[in-house]
Structures are given as C-alpha cells and as structure tokens.
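Before a colleague's protein record goes any further, I have to sign it off. What it holds is a sequence and that sequence's fold in token form. Would you go through it and say whether the fold makes sense for this chain? The record follows directly below this note.
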Amino acid sequence: MTSATGTRVLTLDSLVGLRRGRDPRAVSRRLQVPEGMTAPMGCDAVAVPARFGPLVLPRLPRVGCVYADEAHWWWLVPSDSDYALEWPAPAHYAAGAVLPDAEAPGLPGLIHRPDGTLPYTPPIPLYLAVCRLTGTAPAWSRPVTA
C-alpha cells in the first residue's frame, strides 16, 4: 500500500505478518481465496501429506477450500489458527497461506470449494483429525510439567 505522496505505508496486517516471519511480498506462493469468496479473518493454511488428505475429509463437520498437489493437501483456516496449538508433524502450518519455497513450482489446484462465501475449514476439528491420524495427543491433553 502506498500513500498519496508515493511513500510505502505499512498496514497493521503487514506489521503482524512481519512479526510472524511473513514476507508481505511473497504473494506468488500464496494460496488465493477463490473469486466470490471473502476471508474477513485473514487466511492461513494447514498442509498434510497427500496420503492423509482423503482420511481427513470425512472427519470434518465442514470443509472449506482445499487445495492439492502430488505431495500435499492444503486447507484454508482463519489467520492465527496456530495460536496455542502445536500442529503435529508431518502437518505444516503456513501463516498467510504462503507456501514454503521448497514446494513444487506452481500452486496446488483447488479440489474443494464450499457453498457460501467463507473459505475456511474450522481449525479445531481439523487439528483433532490431524492429531488422530498422526497418533499425537492434542496439546491441551498432554501432561503439564513444571
């Protein structure tokens, strides 16, 4: 964003993204919200290996936008869905829905678009499904150590 004088202005979203390690210029590797949909809470993405994708779907009460390539399936979730959650390996959390550079060239294709205008998969059911498939206890059910 630039001001009327041509000076670059940082928005609150840009500053939050910088704090979280996001490069606001990394739009070429970002999953896009489909035409006609809105993301009022911002977008992050959660990836799982492609072999888990078909196993996650039936475990979710609502499925938002899902993207896939040969290696991963990606779910759009509201921004900051990683707050106080440790997404279990081999899942990958992508702030800003920006894909890692190590991924295959190009962007994954959209394989599921929900009815309505919101692109989100609810993050808690997705987190629980991923934990279940990976044999990982959810963060809140683990023993607390002092």
Summary: The longest strand covers residues 44-49. Confidence is low (pLDDT under 50) at residues 12-16. The chain has three helices and five strands. The two ends are 46 Å apart (CA to CA).
